[in-house]
Design goal:
TIM Barrel, alpha/beta, 15 helices, binds zinc ion, 8 strands
Length: 341
């Protein structure tokens, strides 16, 4: 087995992946046609071409607009997990979705979440891949809209919905705006995470931990600018869900060998690798491992650490986590011995 194949095939858990960023381009075209929605292009290859966070968010909204019926959400959730398994040996994912992106268009929250759960359960049945859901606050929403979203999540909550997160452009809308939404989610029993320190200072990580009560940090790259925050993260055993390709494209680290993920690993932080918005960035969870580990010359032991970090940082309950960890550990050992052979 060559090393790229090994990287692609090692068993993976993904903690940072947005449902709306996993839609196959061909499925967007198909759904748009069915619902009579005009796209800027029907050329599947060029649908996902953009270079800025603003361009990305525009396409993100457009793709979401093609998701209308419960069946649409179910289809995309299933396909997205199927892609993860096929392209990266995905075992489990904790997947973000943005409720207000859909409810604002008049799609009821129940349609969104019931559709997602249909797709997830079908993937578990057919493919053996498990998935849980994290509802994301969209930072360009108002604090009241975010709070109302949390209330609707708590009012209609299948077992698969386990957490609250937060995404959208970070610099203009700092985390403290959404303290009330996070407090309500915590009181309602949801686990908490947030995108932070992707294009904003390390203080945002501290705010997410201390004010919002977050248990994980999504991205976190600028943490290296503040050694006190690094020390805090090490002391807390904090997990970071890092996304090489997406940030390389949008935030200007095109050379992965110089991406801050390398510095975070060197500092001893608990880094996990993730695909973020895979179809929108022409990537997948397998390719993320191949590209980053090749660029930074990481050997099998570091790869193993990435894989197991993701299990350890997941929000599966203790018995599920132990079972998945043992299964992945055995598969990793077998694959490492095949690599040597
Ligand atoms: Zn993200």
């Amino acid at each position: 087995m060559d090393y790229a194949t090994f990287l692609r095939r090692v068993p993976k858990v993904e903690l940072h992946c947005h449902f709306e960023g996993t839609v196959r381009a061909a499925t967007v075209v198909d759904l748009a046609r069915r619902h009579g929605i005009a796209l800027p292009t029907e050329d599947v290859e060029s649908l996902y071409d953009y270079d800025t966070i603003e361009g990305f968010l525009t396409i993100f909204g457009l793709v979401a607009s093609t998701l209308i019926d419960r069946e649409d959400f179910a289809r995309v959730a299933f396909e997205s997990l199927e892609d993860g398994q096929k392209l990266g040996n995905l075992k489990h994912r904790e997947m973000f979705f943005n409720p207000t992106l859909h409810t604002r268009r008049g799609v009821p929250y129940g349609t969104v979440v019931d559709g997602l759960v249909d797709g997830i359960r079908e993937a578990e049945r057919q493919l053996g891949v498990s998935c849980r859901l994290i509802a994301d606050v969209y930072r360009q929403d108002t604090p009241d809209e975010a709070l109302a979203m949390v209330e609707s999540v708590l009012a209609h909550r299948p077992d698969e919905v386990i957490g609250l997160g937060m995404d959208g452009a970070e610099a203009p809308d700092p985390p403290e705006r959404f303290a009330a939404a996070f407090a309500r989610a915590k009181a309602g029993g949801l686990r908490l995470t947030s995108h932070a320190c992707e294009d904003a200072p390390p203080q945002n990580i501290v705010t997410c931990l201390d004010l919002l009560g977050c248990e994980r940090i999504d991205h976190g790259y600028h943490i290296l600018a503040d050694e006190n925050v690094v020390k805090r993260a090490l002391d807390d055993g904090l997990y970071f869900t890092c996304c090489p390709t997406a940030t390389a494209r949008v935030y200007g680290w095109p050379d992965l060998s110089r991406h801050p993920i390398g510095g975070m690993v060197a500092a001893g932080l608990n880094v996990t690798l993730n695909s973020d918005d895979p179809t929108m960035f022409h990537t997948d969870i397998g390719k993320e491992f191949v590209d980053l580990c090749t660029a930074l010359n990481y050997g099998p032991e570091q790869v193993r650490a990435f894989c197991l970090n993701s299990v350890d940082g997941s929000w599966l309950d203790a018995s599920e986590k132990a079972r998945l960890r043992a299964h992945m550990d055995a598969e990793l050992k077998r694959m490492q011995s095949e690599l040597v052979a």
